[in-house]
Amino acid sequence: MNDGTVTLPWLVVRQDDNGNRYRVGRYATRAEAERIADSLDERGHKQLYWVERIGRNATSAD
């Protein structure tokens, strides 16, 4: 992909105590997404936050 667009393959997802899931944001790196998920998780609410990779090679650890 060389069309000048930014690739943001990492998602932070939130699940509330009713099981509803929401996309919180998309990020360029796994480290950035995990930092956001951790900071949200530290707030102590009942929501669960995690990081997912979307697109090609979704199982890659990059």
Automatic annotation (TrEMBL):
Molecular functions (GO terms): peptidoglycan binding
InterPro entries: SPOR-like_sf
Name assigned to this protein: SPOR domain-containing protein
